[in-house]
Design brief:
The chain has 296 residues and is mainly beta. The chain has one domain: Porin. It contains 1 helix and 17 strands.
Length: 296
């Protein structure tokens, strides 16, 4: 009888142990990881408001005179419109300044005033001179003068983009130029009745002008920029010299200026410094709170 009871007890214990092992296998929870974190959130760049700037520039201009013509003769029907055989204008320095407005990161405008320093002119004309009152003798005159100009332009620029402090831009302007000519000295070589020097009073006046610009700037500080550019300026023709001794008045056909310029721009007021030199927006890496594991 004892043996029978002992066997029954052992069988019961073994069955309970096997059941517990199976129950442990059946009820072990499955761990499910939370989904990946949300994408990184980047704070947008702050809005840049309007600010003002002042500028100063120096440069060197390669000048091209498009020609000179004048009236020759003492009266009809002997008056003719004659072109100079040659005409050359020396290069000159330029200095200027202006005030402008930063409208946005990519658009600005300014009003500039530039002085083109004195450039010497040298030309020549061919004509018919007399010897002992007899005409039919070809002669050449040498003509010298000088020119300076004050150029006023209203300009607009597109700043293409800024990379590591460098900003490339293009622009254009329209306005006027006050051109001043000195007296013209007309020298005819010796040997003719007309030999000697005749002086013609110089003329001055306002003319139409426009300009095209391409350049780049570099941020020295948040408000100060170094600027370098090429500027093409076209000045229309106008009065050059007055009548004297059977010649004149005379006109030039206009001027082309190819200038290399360098200068500084300082921004102030309004939103503060230059929008091109504003610090880069800070990137905020936003991560949501971690989700707890999910058990199935």
């Amino acid at each position: 009888m004892w043996k029978l009871r002992s066997g029954a007890i052992l069988a019961t214990v073994a069955g309970l142990a096997a059941g517990s092992a199976q129950a442990a296998d059946l009820y072990e929870p499955e761990v499910v990881m939370p989904p990946p974190a949300e994408p990184v959130y980047v704070e947008p760049a702050p809005e840049v408001g309007v600010s003002w700037y002042i500028r100063g520039d120096v440069g060197y201009s390669v000048n091209e005179l498009r020609g000179v013509h004048f009236m020759q003769g003492t009266g009809a029907p002997h008056v003719a419109d004659v072109s100079f055989t040659s005409s050359r204008l020396d290069n000159s320095w330029m200095v200027g300044g202006g005030v402008g407005v930063n409208i946005s990161r990519h658009l600005r405008a300014d009003l500039t005033l530039d002085y083109l320093t004195k450039a010497n002119f040298r030309g020549s004309t061919a004509g018919d001179c007399s010897i002992g009152g007899v005409y039919g003798n070809a002669c050449t005159s040498i003509d010298t003068a000088s020119m300076s100009a004050l150029v006023v332009l209203a300009n607009a620029y597109v700043d293409i983009g800024t990379w590591h402090g460098f900003t490339a831009y293009v622009g254009g302007g329209i306005g006027g130029a006050h051109v001043k000519w000195s007296k013209l000295a007309n020298l005819i070589e010796p040997g003719y009745d007309q030999s000697g020097t005749t002086y013609h009073h110089g003329r001055s006046g306002m003319r139409f002008a426009y300009a095209l610009t391409a350049g780049a700037s570099y941020c020295l500080t948040e408000s100060l920029e170094l600027d370098a550019s090429y500027r093409y300026t076209r000045v229309s023709g106008g009065d050059m010299f007055a009548y004297a001794n059977g010649g004149g008045p005379g006109w030039d056909r206009g001027l082309d200026s190819h200038a290399v310029r360098a200068g500084l721009r300082y921004s102030f007021g309004g939103a503060g410094g230059s929008p091109r030199c504003a610090p880069e927006p800070q990137v905020v890496h936003y991560q949501p709170d971690p989700l707890p594991p999910v058990y199935k």
